[in-house]
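In the design runs reported in the main text, the only information available to the sequence generator was the tokenized backbone. The following block is the verbatim input for one such run; it is reproduced so that readers can re-run the procedure and compare outputs position by position.
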């Protein structure tokens, strides 16, 4: 059975992610208590279910500590993928303020003192840290719901086996992606932003591509990143990684980083020897994907 566990910090988009699985035809269960997970899988298996997505959070406190061992038990007979959604604290506070919902761990239980929102978020981060370390992490701080749905749809096209390498463009002015394992800073390259004709375009557009591919430093940067990733991929596989996020950053995340991610994904997807190693490649563009749908 393909088991997808969706977890992460409350307010980071777990409901959006679970709906993407539901739309793809998965059997979905939300807010399942940790202690019921193995029983649920046994029941679904007896009903010949092949794909399931389960959302679990830390609302029941310390029982979440049992989850890593439960997942290890399930991996003996099933394919298990853990997706961890995260966001920075300021973004989470804003989201809770906008929805006027309470954080699950801020609710008063028994005679215990009620927690503030920030205290509840910090407590949840600590409880979920062992899961985050083994999961495919997605930072939704600068990501609207439609972009998260799109990213989840791309992820669902991938088989939950082998190593998945994600090349992600971003803009430094909006901060580093928290899920990044490797970060390459390409702000030293000539910037198409200063060309008025190229400014409204992106690194996916032909005029920008033609501008950048003529610059020797851009070609050299691309080759260096390719060589670095190719050299170290076998080591990440040997380390038992399931996901590796390679983030390419420029100032605004619109031109140089987008161009390089596009070039990198084309290069690596064409490598037959890597496909034989069950390495899957995905591309993301944090700032472009975060634009309103009408602007895409």
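Verbatim output:
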């Amino acid at each position: 059975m393909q088991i997808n566990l969706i977890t992460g910090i409350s307010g980071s988009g777990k409901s959006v992610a679970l709906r993407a699985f539901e739309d793809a035809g998965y059997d979905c269960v939300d807010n399942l208590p940790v202690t019921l997970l193995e029983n649920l899988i046994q029941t679904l298996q007896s009903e010949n279910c092949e794909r399931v997505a389960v959302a679990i959070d830390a609302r029941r406190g310390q029982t979440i500590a049992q989850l890593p061992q439960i997942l290890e038990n399930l991996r003996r007979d099933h394919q298990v993928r853990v997706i961890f959604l995260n966001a920075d604290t300021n973004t989470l506070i804003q989201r809770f303020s906008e929805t006027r919902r309470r954080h699950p761990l801020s609710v008063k239980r028994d005679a215990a003192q009620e927690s503030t929102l920030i205290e509840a978020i910090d407590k949840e981060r600590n409880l979920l840290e062992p899961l985050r370390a083994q999961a495919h992490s997605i930072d939704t701080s600068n990501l609207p719901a439609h972009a998260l749905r799109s990213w989840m749809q791309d992820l669902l096209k991938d088989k939950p086996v082998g190593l998945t390498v994600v090349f992600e463009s971003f803009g430094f002015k909006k901060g580093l992606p928290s899920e990044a394992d490797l970060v390459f800073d390409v702000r030293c390259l000539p910037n198409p932003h200063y060309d008025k004709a190229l400014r409204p375009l992106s690194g996916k557009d032909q005029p920008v591509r033609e501008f950048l591919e003529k610059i020797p430093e851009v070609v050299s940067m691309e080759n260096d990143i390719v060589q670095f990733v190719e050299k170290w991929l076998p080591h990440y596989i040997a380390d038992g990684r399931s996901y590796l996020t390679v983030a390419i950053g420029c100032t605004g995340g619109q031109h140089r980083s987008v161009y390089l991610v596009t070039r990198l994904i084309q290069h690596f997807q064409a490598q037959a020897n890597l496909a034989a190693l069950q390495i899957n490649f995905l591309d993301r563009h944090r700032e472009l994907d975060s634009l309103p749908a009408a602007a895409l």
